[in-house]
Design a protein that fits this description.
Organism: Paeniglutamicibacter cryotolerans
Protein name: Putative ArsR family transcriptional regulator
Shape: globular
Structural class: alpha+beta
Strand order of the largest sheet: 3-4-6-5
CATH architecture of the largest domain: 2-Layer Sandwich
Radius of gyration: 23 Å
Pfam family, one: HTH_20
Number of domains: 2
InterPro entries: ArsR-like_HTH, WH-like_DNA-bd_sf, WH_DNA-bd_sf
CATH topology of the largest domain: Muramoyl-pentapeptide Carboxypeptidase, domain 2
């Protein structure tokens, strides 16, 4: 028998199960912040669906995070028609990115600045190249399991997430008539070296080159967190990988029809 002060767990909604008190509020707010990091740009309704909170509860936490300068609103046009009122989407601010973990970056930035002054920009470039060469060496065996470019992009996304970059992939061009227009956007919602890369853009350049080598195709950087974007986005043209397969299939069908007995 439950008292009036003890809610029946059979009827309590997820939004009501959030721990009470200042510590509970802080833990719940951290969950909202991490969800914005992973899914941003994301709407309040989408966050509610993911976390099981009511819209009012989500907006209360988002308002608090906004006042703390950890999240900000991005107005996004309707992707389907481009018309109508822009939707409000939430993303992490620069301060929010820093809160998620940029330990020792001030020391690293100062050290690289000293290296640049003592040995020149080429020394900093060589340092960045060695860093991403080591990353490639770790990632390459993992990507070797893939049988297609798209699968390699997904495995690269998984590897980046394991290293704290909160990566994901999005299919693009699926509604286009030409198979060669198919692409994958490799997105990184967090950059552990964001402040360092802002001071030394060569780190972003070296990372992009590493992606090209790992995927075996030229990729294009659309945005970076260090450059002021809300997410690091890399364009991967997977259509070039799939178009020859479709052409080969059509050729086999054509040959089969030609060889069919009359």
């Amino acid at each position: 028998m439950y008292s009036s002060h003890e809610p029946d767990p059979a009827v309590v909604t997820p939004a009501q199960t959030a721990p009470a008190g200042p510590e509970g509020e802080e833990r719940t707010r951290d969950r909202v912040l991490f969800a914005v990091l992973e899914d941003g740009p994301v709407s309040a309704a989408e966050l509610g669906d993911r976390l099981g909170f009511t819209p009012a509860a989500v907006r209360r936490h988002l308002d608090a995070l906004s006042r703390e300068g950890l999240v900000e609103v991005k107005l996004v046009a309707n992707q389907a028609t481009g018309a109508g009122r822009p939707a409000r989407r939430y993303v992490l601010s620069h301060r929010g990115q820093s809160k998620m973990g940029n330990d020792y970056l001030d020391i690293a930035t100062e050290a690289l600045s000293e290296l640049g002054r003592a040995a020149g920009e080429k020394a900093v470039e060589a340092f960045a190249a060695r860093r991403f060469a080591a990353m490639e060496q770790r990632y390459r065996p993992r990507l070797a399991q893939a049988t297609s470019l798209r699968e390699r992009a997904e495995l690269l996304s998984d590897a980046l997430s394991d290293d704290g970059f909160v990566a994901s992939t999005r299919d693009m061009g699926t509604n286009h008539a030409s198979a060669t227009m198919l692409s994958v956007q490799l997105c990184q919602g967090h950059c552990p070296i964001q402040d360092l890369a802002r001071e030394f853009p060569v780190f972003c350049e070296m990372e992009t080159q590493s992606f090209s080598r790992l995927l075996g195709v030229d990729v294009r950087r659309l945005s970076t967190l260090a450059g002021g974007g809300h997410v690091c986005t890399t364009h991967v043209p997977v259509g070039r990988d799939q178009a020859p397969q479709r052409a080969e299939k059509r050729t086999r069908i054509k040959i089969t029809k030609q060889e069919r007995p009359r």
